[in-house]
Amino acid sequence: MDREVIVYTTPTCPWCQAVKRYLEDRNIPYQEVDVSTDMEAAMEMIRKSGQQGVPVVEIDGEIVVGFDRERLDALLGLH
Description:
Elements: E1 5-9, H1 14-25, E2 31-34, H2 39-49, E3 56-59, E4 62-65, H3 69-76
Parallel strand pairs: 1-2
Antiparallel strand pairs: 1-3, 3-4
């Protein structure tokens, strides 16, 4: 089942790189949104997550703040 995955990132964030690598290693397509260059997207991320920090991952409307591998695995159906 395909899931809609959005990763809110900044170019200098090491945890953002880790999340993207995690998804790529599992062949999970995602949309990357650079909140350092898109203020509207940054405000959307804050509204959805209540957080200003990155990474924020949205999977089918569910929000994961940071690189929480256990929660990502659960939302993606990986075990």
